[in-house]
Amino acid sequence: MAGQFKMPNVNTIALDAMGGDQAPPMVIAGADVARKRYPNTHFLIFGDDALCGPLLRRFSRLAAVAEVVHTEDIVAADAKPSVAVRRGRKSSMWLAINSVAERRANAVVSAGNTGALMAMSKLILKTLPGISRPAIAGLIPTRRSESVFLDLGANIECGPENLIEFALMGGILARAVLGVIRPTVGLLNVGEEEFKGRNELREVANVLRSKDTLFDFHGFVEGDDLTTGTTDVVVTDGFTGNITLKTLEGVSQAYSDFLRRSLRSSLSARLGGMLARSAFRSLREKVDPRKHNGAMFVGLNGVAVKSHGSTDSLGFANAIGVAVDIIEQGVNERIISELSRIQSTETA
Q1: Residue 95: closest CA among 162, 300, 105
Q2: 182 DSSP assignment
Q3: Which end of the chain is more exposed for a tag (fewer CB within 10 A), N or C?
Q4: What secondary structure letter does DSSP report for 177?
C-alpha cells in the first residue's frame, strides 16, 4: 500500500483527484505527463476508486508508480471553507493533505476549492515556526523572466507584520526557485513615491529597508512593474493580489482572442499569420497560463500547491512540477533556517 512509496530519492505527491473543473480525468492525465518529466516521482491519488481506478488503468506506466486511495466525499467548488473543514474530513482534499502531515507524501497538489484547501492545510499542516499566516505565492511571466508574486488570495486583510513575513518568504522562494542570489523585493502600491499609499505600507517599507542583508528592497512598485519585471519579488495583500493576478490572466486571454480574430479577418491577414506562425507560437507559449500554473502555500509546515481549477492536464502537470521543485530545493527548510537566523540576530 502507501508504505511501498517511501523509497530513497523518490518524491511522493498526493493528488486531490476530485478537485477541478475537469477532475478526475484531468488529474490522472496530468499525473502521467508529470511522470514522464519527473521519473523519480510516485503518486497517491485520493478520490472515488470507481472513477479513478479505470482512468489510471489507461496509463499502465503511471499505474506502476501510483496508487488510488478511495475517498467517500468531495469538497464542492462553492463550499464555504468553514463548512468544508467541518464536513469534509473524509474528502479527497482532506485525506490528501493529511497524507503529507503523516509523512506518507512529500507534497499535496489540488485544483479544488482554494479557500477550503487553505483552511484545511492550515489546520492539518500548521504554520512554520515564526510565521503567523501562510500566503499563496506564484510565478508570473515578465519581460525579463519571472517574478514571485504574493499573496494571491490567502489573506484578504493583512497587517504590517504579515507583509513583512511575505517579503521574507518571497525572497527565499526567489533564491530557491528562480536561482536569484540576491533578489530584489518590491511592495505594490499606488505609486513609487515614498509618501504615497496607506500608512501601514510606509511602515512596512521602513522595516524592509532594514532587512538589506536578506535582499535588496527596491521600494514601492506599481501595477505596470509586474509585467516589466522591475523586481524579483512583488508583495501585496491577498485582496489586491488576487484581483491583480486574475486581471493579468484576463488581459492575456483577451489579447490572444483579439489576435486570433484579427488574423482571420481577411485573406491578407491569414497569409501574414501563416508567415509569422513560428513567432506567434513562441508568443503563445510565453503567455500560456498553463506553463505558470501552480501556486505554493508558502509558510506551512508542509508543501501544498494550488492548481487552477479550470486547467487541463498540461497545466496540472506543471503544478505538480512546482511541488517537485519546492521539495527538491528545500524551500521550507530554508525558510525555517533564515527565520531562525533573523530572530537570533534581532534578540542578540
Answers
A1: 105
A2: S
A3: C
A4: I
Terminus-to-terminus CA distance in the chain, angstroms? 49
Out of 31-40, 63-72, 170-179, least confident range:
170-179
| Phi, psi angles (nearest 5°) of residue 62 | -65, -40
Specify whether the CB–CB gap between 57 and 27 falls below 8 A. Answer: no
Please calculate the CA angle 144-145-148 and round it to the nearest 5 degrees: 115
Residue with cell 511592495: 187
Compute the residue count for the chain.
348
How far does CA 328 lie from the centroid of its chain?
Answer: 16
Give CA separation, 264 vs 30, 259, 261, 293, in Å. 32, 9, 5, 29
Residue 3 has pLDDT above 50, yes or no: no
Task: Encode pLDDT of 173-209 as tens digits.
Answer: 898 888 888 999 999 998 888 878 788 899 999 989 8
- Rounded CA-CA distance 27/326 in Å is 20
Q: Which of 81, 173, 106, 84 is nearest to 136 (CA)?
A: 173
Where is pLDDT greater, at 230 or 253? 230
Distance (Å) of CA 251 to CA 49, 315, 326: 39, 19, 29
Average pLDDT, rounded, for the chain:
87
| Residue reference for cell 514601492 | 220
Q: Quote the CA–CA distance of 143 and 287 in Å, as a whole number.
A: 11
Distance CA 149, CA 62 (A): 33
* Residue 281 CB coordination number (10 Å): 10
The DSSP line for 207-252 is HHHTTTTTSEEEEEE-THHHHHT-SSEEE--HHHHHHHHHHHHHHH
The answer to whether residue 287 scores a pLDDT higher than 70 is no
| Unique residue bearing C-alpha cell 490572444 | 256
